[in-house]
Amino acid sequence: MPLPVRKYLLTLVLCVLLPSGGPGQAIGLLQLPPPPPPPLSPPPLIIPPGALDPPLQLRLQTLTGRSRVIVRAVDASAVAGLLPVIQGVGGIPGRQLGLIDAIAADVPNIALPTLANNPLVRRIAIDRIVIGTDERTSATIGATAARQQFGYDGAGIGVAVIDSGITAWHDDLMQPGNPGTQRVDHFVDLVNGNATPYDDYGHGTHVAGIIAGNGYDSGGTRTGIAPGSRLVVVKVLDGSGSGRISDVIAAIDYIIQNRYSFNIRVINVSVGAGVSESYMTDFLAEATRRAVEQGIVVVAAAGNAGSRPDGRTQYGAITAPGNAPWVLTVGASSHMGTVDRADDAIAPFSSRGPTAFDRAAKPDLVAPGVGIESLSDPDSAMFTTKSPYLIDGTEQTSYRPYLSLSGTSQAAPAVAGTVALMLQANPSLTPNEVKAILQYTAETHDGYDVMTQGAGFLNARGAIELARFLASPSTEPYPSATGWGRALHWGNQRVASGYLEDANAWAADVAWGSRTTPVGQAVRWGLTCSSQSCDGGGGTWIAWEASCTNASCSTVLWDRGYSTNVVWGTTCGGADCSGEAWHAPPGEEPDPATTYVYGTSDGDTIVWGTSDSGDTIVWGTSCGDPSCTPTMWE
Fold first, then answer.
1. Least buried of 26, 373, 377, 613, by fewest C-beta within 10 Å?
2. Which CA distances in Å does 271 have to 203, 412, 516?
3. Measured between alpha carbons, how far is 203 from 620 in angstroms, rounded to an integer?
4. Positions in the chain short of pLDDT 50
C-alpha cells in the first residue's frame, strides 16, 4: 500500500510543474497571487502635554508592570465616569479624592497612554510614598516664658496631626481636671479603618506630644508647646511608617470638611514625599493650597537630607509638601542641651533649599529637632526599635512614657504648637500673616546662609508678642524687636526695611510671593520710613510694598529697591533666573566639599527618589545620617 501512495503524490507534483506553453517556451513556476498585506497597526497614541507627571513619563519607556497612580478628572462631574474607564484598561480603582477631583488607582503601565488620552482624564501622577520623618525646646524658643507671661496654652485651638496615629492613652494628653478623658477630639484611620485611636508605629504620638503634651508624667517638665490645644489625628502611615500621598490628600480633604466642627486652625505634616515636579502641578501641593485658602495654617517638615552619607553638606533637598510656597516649611536646629540661644546650631541632617524645579527659597525657618523628648506608645514599633532612647517619667507608670527622637519631623510640631499659641492670642490671623510673623521675629545666626536657616531660628515669644499687637494695634505698644531678624522672604525676595502690620498681603486669596493682589493692587506688608528714621529724623511713614515698574507688572521694584534675591543674588539683575544652573547661595563661592544638586553639567540631579518612579524616599524617621541618631541630653 505505501507504493501507490508515493506514485500518486509524485504525479501530483509533476502536474504542478508541467509547462504552460508549447515547445520552445521556457518552463516557469505557477504564478500564485501575492499574500495579503499585514493588518495595519494603530498609530501610537500621542500623549497630551502635561497629562503624565515626570515619573510616569519615564515608565512609558518600558510599559511593563503596574503603577499606583492618582487619576484626576477634567472636573468634578467627570469623577464618577473615571471608575469604568480605569477598570476598562485593567486598573483597580481605589480611594476617591474629592478635594482634587481624582481617584487613586493601580493600573498597568501599558495602559497609561490610553488612560492619558481619555477625554475624562485631566492628568495622571504617581501616587508617591510618604514616610514619617520637652522642656529645653519650649524654654529655648521662648514658649514657656510666653505661656507664663500671657497665660496662653492653645486652649480652644484645634490642631490636626497627619501621621501614624495616636496612642490610645497617655497621661500627658489628659483633659485638665478630668483624668478619664483625652484631648483627642477625633481620630480617623485611613489605613485600616479602625475607629479606636492607636499608633502601631509611634511617630504620630511623639509628634502630638510635642504640640499638646501637658507633662503630667514628668511633673510638668516635658510639657509640649501648646498643652491646652485639642487634637484631631488622621492616620496615613502604617506600622512601618509608610503611606501614600493619596491618603495624605484624603486626610487634608477630611480636615477641611470638618474644620468648623473642631475649630481646626493648624495642620501638622511631619511626613513627606519626594519631589518629582513643580509645586504648580503637584497634587499634594494643590491639596495644601486648598487648606490654606480655607484659613488653615499648614506646617510641614523640610526633610532630613541636608548632608550626604560622606558628611558633605547638600543643598536642594526640600521635600513635598514643604516645597510649596504657601506651606510653612520647618528645618531643624539643635538647642545643644541648653536653654541658651547663643549655642544653638543647625542640625546637619536638616534639608536645605532651594526647592527642586522651582528654585524657591526654603525652609521658612528652623526649630529645635535634635534629641526632642516627647510621648512614647508601648504598643508601637518605635517602642521596640528605639528602646535605648526611652525615658522614665516622675510618676509611677507601667512603661517608660517618653522617647527621644531627632529629625525635622520633631521641629515642625514645635512650630505648629507655637502657631496654636499665636492664634489663641489673635484668632483673626491668616496663614500668610502667621508665616510673616514667624519669619519677621525669627533670630538669625551668623555662619548660616538663608538656604540653611531660612529667616532664622524660631522665636515663639516674639511671635506671640507681635500677634498680640496686631490684634489691638491701637492699645498695644509695638513689641521690642531686639534680636529679631525683621525680614520676610516674600518668594525669593528678602524684604527688611519696614514694620510688619495688617496689610493686603495677608489676605486668603493672595499667594505667598505674589507681586500683586488678585485685583491688581501692589502687595503691601506694613509701613516703612521714607528716610533713615521717622522718629524725629524728618522722615515720613510710607507703604512697605512691592511696586510694578510697567503696566504688565513683569518687573517689580521690591521694597523700594532694597530687597535681596536670596536664591539668585544679582546673577539675573536681582530677579529670578530662568534656565540657569544654581551653584551656591548668593555671596558664596561653590565649595568642593559641598554638594549643590543643581550645579551639574547634565541638568538637575535630584537627591530623592529613584530614576523611574520617585518611590524611594530619603527622609523621615528612616534618616540614615548619623546626626539623626536620637540624643539623650544630660
1. 26
2. 10, 10, 32
3. 10
4. 1-29, 134, 597-622, 633-634
The residue written with cell numbers 538656604 in the block is 451
Determine if the peptide bond prior to 321 is cis (ω within 30°). yes
Q: How far is Cα 472 from Cα 572, in angstroms, rounded to an integer?
A: 42
CA torsion sign for 633, 173, 287, 295 is: negative
Q: Write out 432-488 in H/E/C secondary structure.
A: HHHHHHHHHHCECCCCCCHHHHCCCECCHHHHHHHHHHHHCCCCCCCCCCCCCCCCE
State phi, psi for 516 to the nearest 5 degrees: -135, 170
Number of helical H runs and strand E runs in the chain? 14, 29
Task: Please list the residues that pair with 123 across neighbouring strands.
Answer: 72
Is the separation of the CB atoms in 225 and 418 below 8 Å?
Answer: yes
- Chain segment 574-606, per-residue pLDDT in tens: 889 887 777 777 877 666 666 554 432 222 223
Beta-sheet pairing, 493-495 with 488-490: antiparallel
Q: In the block, which residue shows the cell 504620638? A: 205
Q: How far apart are CA 212 and CA 231, in angstroms?
A: 8
Torsion sign across C-alpha atoms 618, 624, 628, 629: positive
Model confidence pLDDT, tens digit, residues 23-80: 444 444 456 667 766 665 556 678 889 999 998 988 887 778 899 999 999 999 999 9
375 membership: H or E segment, kind and range? strand 372-375
The terminus-to-terminus CA distance of the chain in angstroms comes to 106
- Element of type H or E holding 495: strand 493-495
Catalytic machinery residues: 163, 203, 409
Rounded Cα–Cα distance for residues 574 and 564 (Å):
7
**How far is residue 236's CA from residue 241's CA, in Å, rounded to a whole number?**
9
* Residue 410, pLDDT score: 95
The dihedral through the CA atoms of 439, 445, 451, 453 has a sign that is negative
